[in-house]
Fold:
Amino acid sequence: MKKSLAICSISLWVLFHTCPPNLQGQDPGTQNFTLSSAVEIALKNYPSVRAASARAGAAEAGIDLARTSYYPKLDLLWQENRATRNNVFGLLLPQSTIPSISGPVLGTTSLGDSVWGSAGGMLVSWEPFDFGLRKANLQQARALKDKASAEVEVTRLDVAASAADLFLVLAATQAAAQSARANLERMQVFARSVHALVDSQLRPGADASRAEAELAVARNATIQAQLNIENARATLAEALGLAGSDISIAPDTLPDLPDERQLPEAKPEEHPLAEAQKAALETVRARERALAGSYYPRFNLQFALFGRGSGALLDGGIDPGKGVFPDVANWATGLSVSFPALDVFAIHARRRAEKENETAEAARQDQVVQSLKAQEARAKAALNAARQIAANTPLQLIAARETYIRSGARYEAGLGTVVDVADAQRLLAQAEAENAVAQLNVWRALLAVARAQGDIHPFLEQAVRPGPHRQ
Structure:
């Protein structure tokens, strides 16, 4: 009778429990995401996207700053002082420490007598032409802005692709955990059946020990699978900019497999990484052009209106009622030309350095294009292999289930050992896990191809298209 009950238990398990159970229900307070919504939230929340956008905004402000060099300059001044009026003839080299005194030498050296002095005025300066220097500086600012904008696209691609990949990693981890739970339930039923046979003295006690050992291994695998889920969930939450939040995903919204339509033709030169490197190269060239236009005379049209006041008189006397406000006005207009002749050596050295930087950036651009081509080739090879594996795992699962059923039947008939059943059980668990993640691995491989091509929109379009979904 006990043997019959044990055999019945095993048979019922084979019939009804070789397929993984459904996912456990989620906490109603948990944020639930589909693949497309996860990508959208990541692009909105992740700090690196906001930082890259802010840098692009700062670079755009640099263009406005460069344009201000075309405007006239207006300097205003007001000065009020109380000082002695002793003055001497002689040369004083340019410096910024000793104040200058205008007027004739009076022959006085008193440090006790002081007068009021005042000055106020304005100076308008404007460069009518600059031999293209301001235009070159404006082009440099635009190149920096283009570089920052390209880096924003690189960041958005990385963030979106990482969020999508981590979504699929979590889905695969949950599928593997589902298989681990199914394996644990099978082992629990099998262990109870073996104990029933051992208690009936139809099998040796070693079979019960082996069954308990296999059950412990299945429990450990289930615990590790749950840990993997929690780690994957925390990593995805961080990628979404929601670190520490309780999130869940809806992997069943994915179609079974992406269709096998022809992948879009890739143009590595248009990849965001290549565009960013191209912008970096253009930035170096813009700096070089700005240096080329810097070794020219600087012309300034100037107009000044100013006034001064002083309580010092020409005869050496002091007028205490004067000097507090400017009472002598003047104006002046003219053209000044400045030319730093000996800067030619420094400019030549800087241009030579920028020329070497240009060569380095051009080589780096070639390297980026080569790397992108290699990444795409590897991703396509991985996609092809993933498709083949996904087509093979159902056959592997069917064979593993048949092996499990046959080994169980042989054990029931006394023709097999508990080791045979345990081996078949592990083979079935492995087949279930590999079959559960095979389709998700195809999606991950397709995402890797899209990332290597620089645009994941075709991938997302396939991922959200209507069609048969996994149950």
Notes: The mean pLDDT is 84.
